[in-house]
Each structure stands twice: as structure tokens, then as C-alpha cells.
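Fill in residues.
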């Protein structure tokens, strides 16, 4: 009995030490993934490291109209930033974080967004979020008029209107 007890203690100690010697590196969250986990993103947290000179990218755009309807403030004002350094979209629906990727051609005034939003619930925000994400997915072109950005569908209809912050 004593012999088998010693074997069990030895085996347990060996397994415990082996577990402590694990070489698996800890999992690190990247900055973008951790921002997606949080529904609320402020414009200060999405400022890119470099600034584009085209006047469209690397600018915080306050979204004022979606399908000619005024946007509403829920947790924050809806906004969008196109980060030229990594071709990512960040922003807010007013309730949830917006995130994704985009392709862009300034000379041809082409803009194609692939975006998603977080899943936090805000009273009364669902309709605006659905319209906003749908409109963003349909954007194919843009017009820059001073401090205003118009985002258009393939046929040239205005989907979204935004002002430079």
C-alpha cells in the first residue's frame, strides 16, 4: 500500500511540474479585436498614426443623415473614420461600435465598405442601426464637398451625409 501511495505522489508531483513548464505563450488580444469587443468606441480611440492628405481618410466624420433622416444620439454621436494606414473602418452607430475594412480610389471617387456593428442594446436604436449598416454596405461612391462627405450607392443616390469633425 505504501509503495503504491509513493508512486501516486511521485506521479502527481511529476505531472504538476510538467504543467508548470508549459511553453505555450499567453494569448494576446490585438488592439482592433479588443475594440470590437466593446460596443462603445470614442473618436479619440480611433485616431490613426498617420494622416492622409486626401481629405476623406483619417478624418472623423460625424454621420448626420441616413437615407435623408437625421441620425440620433444614443450613447454617442454616430461617426466614422477610414484609417488609411490599415484600410479599416471604425466608428459608432450611436449605440454600437462599427468596424470593418474598405477599398478606396480617390481619383475615381470610389469607396466600398465591408462593415459590421457590435451587439449592445440601446432603447430605440435598432432601426437607426439597421438603416445605417445597410447604407454603409451599399456605399460604392463618394463626393467630397468642403467639410461634407456624401456617400452614394452605385446609381449615385445619396445614402449617407457626414460632416468633418
Amino acid at each position: 500500500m505504501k509503495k503504491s501511495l509513493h508512486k501516486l505522489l511521485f506521479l502527481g508531483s511529476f505531472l504538476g511540474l510538467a504543467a508548470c513548464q508549459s511553453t505555450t505563450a499567453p494569448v494576446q488580444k490585438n488592439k482592433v479585436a479588443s475594440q470590437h469587443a466593446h460596443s462603445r468606441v470614442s473618436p479619440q480611440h480611433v485616431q490613426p498614426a498617420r494622416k492622409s492628405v486626401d481629405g476623406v481618410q483619417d478624418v472623423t466624420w460625424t454621420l448626420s443623415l441616413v437615407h435623408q433622416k437625421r441620425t440620433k444620439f444614443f450613447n454617442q454621436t454616430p461617426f466614422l473614420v477610414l484609417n488609411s494606414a490599415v484600410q479599416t473602418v471604425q466608428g459608432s452607430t450611436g449605440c454600437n461600435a462599427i468596424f470593418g475594412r474598405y477599398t478606396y480610389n480617390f481619383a475615381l471617387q470610389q469607396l466600398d465598405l465591408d462593415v459590421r456593428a457590435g451587439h449592445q442594446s440601446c432603447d430605440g436604436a435598432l432601426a437607426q442601426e439597421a438603416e445605417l449598416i445597410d447604407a454603409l454596405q451599399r456605399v460604392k461612391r463618394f463626393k467630397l464637398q468642403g467639410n461634407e462627405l456624401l456617400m452614394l450607392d452605385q446609381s449615385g443616390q445619396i445614402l449617407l451625409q457626414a460632416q468633418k469633425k
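Helices lie at 2-20, 31-37, 126-138.
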